[in-house]
């Protein structure tokens, strides 16, 4: 076959591939919230819609694109959705209750718990099944969103499986203790912080009036209900009897969550696949060295693409376990 004939043969295949997926279609979607609607954005590859995945945001005021007013502008979830759409998958990116487009879902965004977020995920799964006709929905949880995904998977039959990205493999209290002790500057505060964590783990609120100012913010009264809820969950126990497929995806340049956490998760889940990406950080961007400043700079760069292999690693596992639509 000549080179010209080869090209003429390949071009129709490329065109057929483009036509099969079509141009991605973005649609605003809603699910029922406690006091008002939960809102998000669906990005579909066109027809057919392919597997459906719900992207669950990380901690704090993180929006559906993966950005935060606290200086994070990496657009991680938006970039991931675009990547997965190109691979024939439908994704839904959501704003958490009380925040951004979901502000009407509750009058106080601080008065929430992990259990509340689990309820919201279940509402989203039901809404997306009804809207798309999907037999089930994949949960893609990033950071704290991974914990929410693990907890939600135990309470809803309509979940296909879990994708846990940069998710802690230990209870939050244990992680906080480690982070506080790791910084020598925290020495004078460590004892007081450890006492507060222990009380919250036992379900007891703490009085912050006499605390060091740095700890007053960390253990502020308005977030103690959330911390008590989060401290009660052990990710390893959540996964111990999980029969659904689980992908644990972890970047080796992540300065927030360790490879050891990912290994704990993969060891806990009976049907887990562990993927470690060498030069990938917490916001799924490429980082070439251990330079902390360079790593953090990627958090504020929406123009930087996702690291290679992030999207393909997720799509490969989801398509391997695809359910008939």
Lay out the secondary structure:
Layout: H1 3-21, E1 25-31, E2 38-44, E3 52-56, H2 76-86, E4 90-94, H3 114-132, E5 137-142, H4 144-153, E6 159-165, H5 172-182, H6 187-201, H7 213-218, H8 221-231, H9 235-239, E7 246-251, H10 259-268, E8 272-277, H11 292-297, H12 310-320
Parallel strand pairs: 3-4, 3-5, 5-6, 6-7, 7-8
Antiparallel strand pairs: 1-2, 2-4
Any overview of this molecule?
The chain is of the alpha/beta class and 325 residues long. The chain folds into two domains: 25-171 and 234-322, Alpha/Beta hydrolase fold, catalytic domain (Rossmann fold); 172-232, no CATH class. 41% of the residues lie in helices and 15% in strands. It is built from twelve helices and eight strands. It has helices at 3-21, 76-86, 114-132, 144-153, 172-182, 187-201, 213-218, 221-231, 235-239, 259-268, 292-297, 310-320, and strands at residues 25-31, 38-44, 52-56, 90-94, 137-142, 159-165, 246-251, 272-277. The protein has an eight-stranded mixed β-sheet, with helices on both faces. Helix 10 links the parallel strand 7 (246-251) and strand 8 (272-277). Helix 5 (172-182) runs antiparallel to helix 6 (187-201). The radius of gyration is 21 Å and the shape is globular. The model is unreliable at 1-20 (pLDDT under 50).
